[in-house]
Write a structure and sequence with these properties.
- The protein has 124 residues and is mainly α.
- It contains 7 helices and no strands.
Length: 124
């Protein structure tokens, strides 16, 4: 199997792989594409988490991906946008666990995610 974030992997095939195999596939894609990353493992991990959620059919993640693509992001960019929301959720959970631990807060943030809001966050 070869990973390309512009094309959805077949859900069953993706989920049949173990986490390390998924991570390797994502890192290999970025290497082939010549993408230089400060932390390839972390970047690939967030790709894998988002792809896992998509393959599992998590409704809010699927809807966010579709919405972002309808707004003009390609699938890879949309995965990054969703991953940025996930990263923020994890960061807040670790740094303010009493205030921010519910999965619902991640899903609410995904429901609000737009191309415009993601691009605005990227400029910060």
């Amino acid at each position: 199997m070869e990973y390309n974030p512009l094309v959805a992997p077949h859900p069953e095939e993706w989920l049949d792989l173990d986490e390390m195999e998924r991570n390797i596939l994502v890192r290999e894609y970025h290497e082939r594409a010549g993408v230089k990353l400060p932390d390839q493992t972390m970047h690939a991990t967030f790709h894998v988490i988002v792809e896992n959620q998509l393959a599992e059919g998590l409704p809010d993640v699927v809807e966010a991906l579709e919405r972002l693509q309808n707004e003009g992001l390609d699938r890879h960019e949309a995965i990054h946008a969703i991953g940025s929301v996930l990263l923020e959720h994890i960061w807040k959970t670790v740094h303010a666990p009493d205030e921010f631990t519910e999965t619902e807060s991640y899903l609410k943030a995904l429901r609000k995610l737009t191309k415009k809001s993601w691009l605005k966050r990227m400029k910060k």
